Amino acid sequence: MADVSALTSSAYSQALEVIASVEPRIAEATRQELADQRGSLKLIASENYASPAVLMTMGTWFSDKYAEGTVGHRFYAGCQNVDTVETIASEHAKELFGAEYAYVQPHSGIDANLTAYWAILAHRVEGPWLQNAGVKNMNDLSEADWEKLRNELGNQRLLGMSLDAGGHLTHGFRPNISGKMFHQNQYGTDPVTGLLDYDAVAKKVKEFKPLILVAGYSAYPRRVNFAKMREIADSVGATLMVDMAHFAGLVAGKVFTGEENPVPYAHVVTSTSHKSLRGPRGGFILATEEYAPSVDRGCPMVLGGPLSHVMAAKAVAFAEAKTESFQTYAQNVADNAQSLAGGFLSRGAKLVTGGTDNHIVLLDVTSFGLTGRQAESALLDAGVVTNRNSVPSDPNGAWYTSGIRFGTPALTTRGFGHDEFDKVAELVVDVLKNTTPNATKDGAASKATYTLADGVAARTKGASAEMLDKNPLYPGLELS
Ligand SMILES: *Cc1c(COP(=O)(O)O)cnc(C)c1O
């Protein structure tokens, strides 16, 4: 991580004083959050550390400006500077990803997906429907026809990767809005290898005939061949939507190229900007010319006023991601995942799919006699921050789970390399080997409570502190 200048330190110190003059507890919590992030091994696969430039861009008066609409076509007056910011952000995104069109307004990954779904419905269903009915605008439909159109919009088919195979809840999971607004179905992974089986996906697509095929994941530790996914989508005339929320940084950093790069193959690509891409919390959408006009209607279709300060920070993050040093970072993220996976495998641990070729490592903790919940808590006791995750066909269900998901983006930003990630694997295995489930009243093993052997938390924290001190977060940043 690049050294933070004295000027930045003084800017943050003064900002905290300003905050403290109004609500000191918030200033205090903000200081404490920095201390906590500095002092823990952050292995949550969806988190990262944004640069001071990205963070500072979010703290300005752009936050105060309403700018519903699109560049040059706003529902509010006085948006000339927001227009500048949004234009620069989308130009950067188009160049960075080689996309025909970029929409940078979505507030989050979920907003990006919801906007993309409705844009696809508008393009594929509503447009042709209105044309058939001989009207330009849905307000010109009779009440009876409007009722029919609404019915049709609400009965389209969506096929995405199942949650326990590594998909995201917005990919058609029933409790999520995506599972309710669509007639949904899911594809999984091969029960033996844990890998995506393209022939099985193709078969399911032929049977189910979705309007939208969703590719992308939150917990699948492997690369996806998007050329194959496009071919499968084309076989039934489906729109291919790729949700690259997790791996956008690996696309931007040119680790995923050719058929592993979703942009040339998908009709619509959605993403977050804050995970491996290392930008501000937010979302964005890339699309082909064909889908651009409907995505551009994100507001008023789904969204309200864009977060102009965050769009500005996205522009800064995209500019950072265009640099060679970001490409080196992205390659290190992938290499470090190999080191972490290798560290687990050499110590006899079991990984879903037997390894990784992206930034995620999914450890199956059943061989330690633990549930994901027990493993997650025991690791946290030892200062290792992860999250529990289902494994395919999880015997412990979605609450207790059987897996722990690890990601390398955050600690790679701090400067961790091969030796540190191998050490992380050693520490994790040590903690899990020394954790035992408590017995329930009837003598069975508890799925929730556990005992971590004496001294293990302390020795893990000691070893972590050494690595964390050597690879400081925001080096040079000292708050007065
Ligand atoms: C994280 C994630 C999202 C949601 O992003 P939020 O910004 O939390 O709304 C969507 N899709 C995938 C695949 C993700 O991993």
Automatic annotation (TrEMBL):
This is Serine hydroxymethyltransferase. Pathway: One-carbon metabolism; tetrahydrofolate interconversion; Amino-acid biosynthesis; glycine biosynthesis; glycine from L-serine: step 1/1. Keywords: Amino-acid biosynthesis, Cytoplasm, Methyltransferase, One-carbon metabolism, Pyridoxal phosphate, Transferase. The modification N6-(pyridoxal phosphate)lysine is found at residue 275. Belongs to the SHMT family. Catalyzes the reversible interconversion of serine and glycine with tetrahydrofolate (THF) serving as the one-carbon carrier. This reaction serves as the major source of one-carbon groups required for the biosynthesis of purines, thymidylate, methionine, and other important biomolecules. Also exhibits THF-independent aldolase activity toward beta-hydroxyamino acids, producing glycine and aldehydes, via a retro-aldol mechanism. NCBIfam families: PRK00011.1 (NF000586), PRK13580.1 (NF010094).
